[in-house]
Fold each of these.
Amino acid sequence: MAIRKIREMGEECLRKTCKVVPEVNLRTKILIKDMFDTMYHANGVGLAAPQVGVLKRIVVIDCGDAPYVLINPEIIERSGEQTGYEGCLSIPGKSGKVTRPQYVKVRAMNQNGEWYELEGEDLLARAICHECDHLDGILYADLATEGLVNNEELYAEEE
Ligand code: ZN
């Protein structure tokens, strides 16, 4: 188990366009394993490679149903709309309201280098969009029209 350091907003690696992964090799597999370890350790539901300082188009997601690996992901279908609070391991302690599609279909390679398609609704759709944005240097904070709030205030508000 290897936990990598999660980079935070303000660090340049989070603002770069990541490179396409030409092949899945042992190094890629180790990175993916470390990304899952890092994500679970931080209680996240998704993590993109630039968040651990690696500028490659790799995402891991686990919203509670199953772990997904998305290499070179491309969102090929979007429909509907959902607006809700979103957080990011690179912006600790904060949340912001972001509008995302209710449904997406993404095409990507899995950890064996095979192309597949994944459909997601609700939280999974949100996570796919959020993580894919990371690969182009976009943070949810850029899309949060009402700005960011501290989680403590948010949870106090809901009570
Ligand atoms: Zn994020």
Amino acid sequence: MSRILDGKRVRDAILESLKPRIAALDETQRPPGLAVVLVGENPASEIYVRSKVKACQDLGIASEKHLPTADISTEEMLFLIQSLNQRPDIDGILVQLPLPAHIDETQVLLSIDPSKDVDAFHPYSVAALVANSPGFRPCTPAGIMRLLDHYQIPVAGKRAVVVGRSDIVGKPMALLLLHANATVTICHSKTADLASECRKADIVVAAMGRAGFLTQDFFNPEAVIIDVGINRLRDRPAVDRMFSSDVSKLTEFDKKGTVLVGDVHPAAFQNCAAFTPVPGGVGPLTIAMLMSNTVWAAEQRYGGQS
Ligand code: NDP
């Protein structure tokens, strides 16, 4: 029987561990503060922002939303970020991506004070990650490391394959695994024989954005599979192909007209050592690590705990 790695349980443990740290800050200074900037109207981003603000409220982190309209210029965005940089009550600044095409995204991300870069996209944070020195770590890969640790899955000396090389997930994931002494291979769309690379791995992290792409023949039966992908299926034949034997998923699709699947074909989970389900695996960890980064930012401001 493959072991299920429950991301909600790990999220709850992370959030629980933050509570005394937030209480200590609240007592001696003030609660940590997070500013979230969401430009224009984007229903998916609005849902993410709402969940982030809700997580702050539940924990006692002060949060505020900035909702400029889609026609804001790059200069106006830079002005907004500068004003947040200067605010002593704001520890973390998060700009929800993607930004509208006319805004210079790189310039905006560069303008965030590195000490408030809770998403860890600033080159300063990237350099700290590469050098394995203290700094913010990107939330999703950092959450995956916490999950591996929580379930006591050994990483040192293991072969890890990361499928995907994005700046947000794939590359930082590979670096974190490397720093934890795994032997890491990064695969991408030009990798010659993806299946054979994956089959050699003790740990596979799939971060491709391709629904059910990695089928059972990509994994050895001892593999730990971490499925980062979030893909929405909207047509019934695709759902049938993916979940032919899972009545609950078919019923869910019939009710909602949509169903989520990761980058790993669900059948592959039946024959591996352990796996993260979609949903309920990696997804819940990302916001928990954003909260963790915000608390860490506040602690750094008031006394340099690490
Ligand atoms: P990107 O689109 O930025 O990157 C996808 C990567 O996958 C690229 O490096 C690409 O290779 C690689 N890839 C695509 N097709 C193939 C293929 N056929 N064979 C091998 N490699 C391939 O995606 P992200 O990294 O931003 O996100 C990946 C997935 O993770 C998405 O489904 C996203 O929704 C999800 N996600 C989930 C999060 C969570 O909290 N659970 C958080 C962030 C992302 P190449 O570079 O050659 O093009």
